[in-house]
Fold this protein.
Amino acid sequence: MTPVKARDYYPITGRSSTGGTYDRIPVEELKDDYPYQWSLFVLGYAWIKGSPIPFPGVVQPPLKNSISLMEIGGVHGRPYREWAGDRRIPKEAQADFSHVDKKDTNPSPSRFGGYCNHASITFPSWHRPYVMCIEQAIGEYAENVAQQYDEEVSITATGQKTVTVPNPLSFFKFPYIPEDFEDTTRNGVTAHFSQWPRTYRYAADSPTPPGSDIPALQAALKAQAEDLRTKVGLLFSFPDGGDSSMIYDQFSNTLNESRQEDDNTTIGSLESVHNSIHGVIGGNGHMGNPDYAGFDPFFYFHHSNVDRIIALWEWCYTSYWMNNGYTADGADHSWTQQRGTYSQAYNEKLEEEGEFGLIVPWRHEDGTYWTNKETRFLTPDAYPKYYSYKEFLGVKVDKPADNLQQQQEARARIAKYYSIDPQLSAEKTGTHTHIEVPGVGDIDLPSNFQSIRGFRLFIILVRLPEHAFGRSYNFQVFYKNTQLIGNITVFAREDSSPCKACAFRRDGAALVRGVIAIPPRIVNEIIVNSGIDRSKNNMDITTGLVTKALSGKLLDLSGRVLASAKGGEDAATVPAGKAASKRVQPVEITLLSSAVAQHANDKNQPVYFFDWKPHKGLFPSGWKAESVEATRH
């Protein structure tokens, strides 16, 4: 690729100046065990926010516009303009310009969709250099300050005393409010983005809220904790020997472009987990809206953890990757970027490298853009990134596995850590009596594997209209009407967003895919409490009991209910006059189940999910409108 000379770009090199690869340390550990590095980190974060903290003897370095949080945060959405760290030359900007193509002529300036890649095969690869960017900026500040002191002088200067400073991680105060920041009022609640002088989490409906409602945030997070852990554990339950492109597609994003209608395999996606954290942290605040999320300092901690999961996953599944598309029914298909971005036309194909593999706006030192392929892996033979993560359950992501067995055993440990442990669940529940599970010879299993008798994992597959309410919203399933089983967040931009490609997807009725695993103990409780003769139980009876015990809600991120539904075939049909509009109703909510097999002799091997079966629709009686929004056609 020929280097280009952009005007004044900021290259993403990672912490290359350190001369080595160092672990990203959990923030609690950084604070407790590395006081000097913690101090530099806090000072550096305050510096990129444009509010440096005075420190004895330190001359604050000048802050380049391109690495200010105002600019870096804006890459994710508003304000829709070129990042100061990119600065394309005219030739780049007009590479495929057409005077008759609406992507270039409407709106002005040309291009739409901002930079961000969501609901796309490139979701993991695009966000990796994004986190490297802010890490690099803070690191450069730390180096500058550290060079002004040696260790002895630093100790003397600080006197080993702890001082209290404003917490730069709690919010970001905007130096100015961009012209396209807009207030949004939905369901009687307003997010005052054009007036809020700083970022908020769970903000009150006021232009001047007293602060973030942290107790509300913590309560919501605790309610979703088990569901979130299970979703992460499922990501490490993909089998060996699968289709490389299709499995990576299911793992990486909520669109799942390659999914076939007759494929009932349902593991979930990393992006769906990511979306839930945005919703549960943001509430009626900045993190819950893609156009403003990048300004919240927590955004980069969240995405660093997302990247940690990516690093663990690609260490365990080195053969699964986006490649240059997928094959289905004997035909080859390219990945597409349905929404388009600042540098891509809508429906442009996406590849791992080359012209269609660029991930803009992240450049190298020579001015070329990073490619999807270059973001893969943190091992020594990968494109250098100069960071890693602490060892986790025996996995060090910057040191490749020696063999497949190491990867398999690591997957088993990680899945169990995150609550995917069918063997233990079967032991605790005594298995669900007379639930059908294929026996020996009924289905091909990996060598030395045998099914867990009478045990199936029940999962709810959900497909939701991305733009049902013109903003982010939650789908939640409850047991006994009050006990939250699981949550799926649709992380969507407002209808008024300058993201014109989002309008393109909205016109195409784009869907968001998500899964909710029903805890085995809940299934067992439903069966036991039903009072049925369990010796006569079967799959139809079990699925009928499960669906009857569940209910559903659609909620906005402030927690207000938009629509509700009751499970089971006996539930009364929602009258037409009270029904939610078809436009906002989930397109699919299906109860699925999978049998589970374990290695006959080696309990360190991961379990194997097989015999996926679709069962009943969860809410056949329909959805009741609980707000005016849910009635609009």
User: Anything to note?
Assistant: Confidence is low (pLDDT under 50) at residues 103-112, 151-158. Residues 250 and 256 are 5 Å apart (CA to CA). The longest helix spans residues 123-146.
